[in-house]
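To whoever is on call:

I kicked off a structure prediction for a single chain this morning and the downstream step that reads the tokens threw a length-mismatch warning. I double-checked the sequence; it's 306 residues and nothing unusual in it as far as I can see. Pasting both halves so you can look.
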Amino acid sequence: MTNVQTALLHELEPIVEQNLNRHLKAAKPWLPHDYVPWSKGRDFAFLGGEDWVPEDSPLDPVAKAALLVNLLTEDNLPSYHREIATRFGRDGAWGSWVGQWTAEEGRHSIALRDYLVVTRGIDPVNLENMRMRHTIAGYDSGDKTPLQALAYVSFQELATRVSHRNTGKASGCPIADQLLARVALDENLHMVFYRNLMDAALDISPDAAMCAIRDEVIGFSMPGMNMPGFQDNAILIAKAGIYDMRIHHDDVVQPVLRFWKIFEREDFGPEGEQAREQVDGFLKMLDERAKYYEEKAKARESVLSS
């Protein structure tokens, strides 16, 4: 890490402490086991019961795909912890946040897995095999600077919140909907923390922060994209309106940029101004692509209904 990046992290530390205290006041503790319908559970063959068969699942293919992607994404928490601990450090307010965030995120995979195994929503053997493969492979975001990492997680936490919330609504199960709504509340608070830190970074170092934002808007990908079968599942999820290009543009990228007042700021130098123009151009392209896929979907629906 360069001396400039180290100095920026040090300068941001009082803002980290303020936002950590705000977070601790806003976050409501919850217990994963409260959200699992244990009475629906039964033994598998190892303990004298019956192993999973497809007919056991109450979920449709879209719900199964979305819940699988969401859970496997949460499973890579050890890698995510390494990512933020490496970027932000383990000391002071930064270290306190890293620990708090990690502990809160850990509840998500616990609750989602318990729900899916108890309700037999997904083949538990396949789920465990995929968890092993995905977690062994880990997650590596490359050589992101702390500023790039802050920009990325500002968008990614909101994307995860939206994905969880929409998955719950699409699941057809009130219990899954309730659980995922609760997980989404955590993700939203995490997004607010990172978004506020990036907002402060824009005031401290406008050009460097804007360049980091540009890099992460244009290069954004979900942390689970390297999991087995991600692309096929992502297509199912997009077609169902759980998470698609339009949602990413309208409900994830644009709200965060508006909060930072990216297109209203007047403190950018030439480098920051160029980065802002590049973001503007990318968003216009993303909007056009979203319109294209929307038109394709409408045409497909028209053919099916005729």
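Update from on-call: the warning came from a stale cache, not from the record. Cleared it. Sanity check on the structure: The mean pLDDT is 94.
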